[in-house]
Fold this sequence. Notes:
Elements: E1 3-6, E2 12-17, E3 24-29, H1 32-48, H2 61-70, H3 76-93, H4 103-112, H5 117-136, H6 163-172, H7 178-187, H8 191-196, E4 202-203, E5 208-211, E6 216-219
Antiparallel strand pairs: 1-2, 2-3, 4-5, 5-6
Helix pairs in contact: 2-3, 3-5, 6-7
Amino acid sequence: MASIDKRDDGTYRARWREYPGGPQRTKAFRRKVDAERHLVEVQHQLARGEYLEPKAGHTPFDAYVAAFVARGMWRDSTTASVRAALAHAVRAFGSRPLVSIKRADLQLFLKGLEMSDGYRRIVRQHLGSVFNAAVADQMLARSPMAGLRLDTATTAPVVPPTVEAVQRLHEAAPGWFRVAVVLGAGLGLRQAEATGLTVDRVDFLRRTARDDSAGARWGAAQPEPVR
């Protein structure tokens, strides 16, 4: 239910509720036509699910981050990592209202972080999650992180080790670790793939391994005499 009343000071007060029985919201205007336009826009926002409570964006950044981390459904180790990454932003923005943090602020913050490019991307990822959650919680109309990209780091070209280098590494490695050298050099497996490889996926006669998730077969081009 929405209505407009004229106040003693000559201004017009628009009144509305976000849902039946909900708290009454008000906003004053000098002209009645502006109050009417505001109520029409509020009704449209409510119908589209885009309505934001007037003071929602004034939630302090540090308080919202604490709540965001607390409700995250992660393992304890992941929670600790997320909290550590976001701690840099909490120190930078403190109790500033969410709505006051603009894209330019975030860009300067990320640019000024004295850390590796990889960890800076992790901080950017978690910050994006925080502001996306704020949008979902109807505290912000849009995320200030939207479209914010980091410069691509310039990296040196990858130079594969020679067969002789792999053989020396294999010979120098502890016995329990030598299989990792073979899997990395022979199959090109990444760490997670190598640790997840099971015996039933290895064909020792053909020197191949099977990737059931992708339906692919890796060929082990392991150098002799590595066995």
